[in-house]
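Standup notes, structure subgroup. Blocker cleared on the nicotinamide-adenine-dinucleotide input:
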Amino acid sequence: MVTVFGLGFVGLTTALGFAHLGYEVFGVDVDENRKTLLKNGKLPFLEPHMEDILKTHINRDFFVADDVKEAIKKSEYVFYCVGTPYGENGAADLKYLFSAIDSTIDAADDDKFRVLVVKSTVPPSTTSEKVLPYVLSKKRISQKFGIANNPEFLREGHCWKDFIEADRIVIGCNDENSKDMLLNLYKPLGVPIIPVSHSTAEFIKYLSNTLLATLISYSNEMAQIADAIGGIDIAKAFRVLHMDKRWGDCGMRAYAYPGCGYGGYCLPKDTCALYSQSIQKGFTPQILKNVIETNANVAKTVAKKICKNISRDKTIGILGLSFKPESDDVRDTPAAKIIRELNALGYKNICAYDPVAMDEFKAKYADIDLEYCKDAKTVYDKSEVIAIVTAWEEFKAAAGFGEKIIVDCRYML
Ligand SMILES: NC(=O)c1ccc[n+]([C@@H]2O[C@H](COP(=O)([O-])OP(=O)(O)OC[C@H]3O[C@@H](n4cnc5c(N)ncnc54)[C@H](O)[C@@H]3O)[C@@H](O)[C@H]2O)c1
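Run returned:
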């Protein structure tokens, strides 16, 4: 049996994934509203296909636990999928992780062996230097825990497929018992499972995310160079770059494309966390430093491009508020940064539309003064200039709305 702490994108997918594989799964969350929604078969966020999968498993083999003690008592596996947001100096904040570990240690009142698995993204050396000593210092003599980590590579919008058809499962272990248990747990998936050391597993996750961030910052800088030189069809240039057979048919080329800078929950905080961790360990990474700086400046560049040649009393229309299409996630979304930059430049009349993320944006950025519109055409009609900030497919239609200037910040038209 499995207990999963944190029922967000990663935790809910993990919990339902294990239920799908035939295990009995308990889900624990501190957010009561989220728990109530899940118990009623409703998703607390937008994720294709997931609500149907939830409805299949809820109260059959996936249970949203009110009694953590009962869940831990029955479980051999405890997964931590809680948030690891920005902490001090860009380091990962581990307070949610330690709080979930505390709940586990409080609840385990027998001598059963349990493997505690950190699935949250944590910087290399966290498991061996922080989690393991913490558990050893807190645990009672009778308690038996193995400590492992198991980084998650899923993408929002593709959570289920990325879990069920994972291209690799990485497990970081330092004891044979935990390793064997995790190999057995994941075996039914029939995908490659790679056991490595704690820190190697953590590092593999950051290798992946920082490479994606680097590709994005590289692309944005190249677009800025092209803009400065002038006379260059930037979208075409990148599309031709993608025709190089060495890209194969992989999705990586989507990251080698300019836009509004990387956003969302993971790339910004993970890039900063690895940079911060490396400095703490005595090495200052130059490439990552510039990747972060380049990304921080994209909103400024994009905002200047949007308001070029229009007076401050005119209305600017923003199409797209989520950090990427097919998602209502507005965490670290470029739209918020761009709107703030426009405000700082003196442009206060801004209207916006997003197919799914307007409520989330309103709630998260209550300090941003925006007129929310019912559709893209209304934004177009009200505005002097219109900027496409999120690459929703439906915004392609904006090109046919009329003669107004459309700043295609996503190079999608
Ligand atoms: N979102 C992604 O695409 C993605 C992909 C790979 C890895 N990750 C990593 O996985 C982790 C979780 O990300 P997410 O997007 O699922 O986060 P999320 O914010 O969607 O979900 C986290 C959940 O943890 C709950 N929580 C917080 N403290 C808790 C506690 N003590 N006990 C129980 N529940 C608690 C929150 O209420 C929330 O529901 C992060 O470390 C993230 O970096 C995320």
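Discussed briefly. The chain has a mean pLDDT of 97.
Next: hand off to the docking folks.
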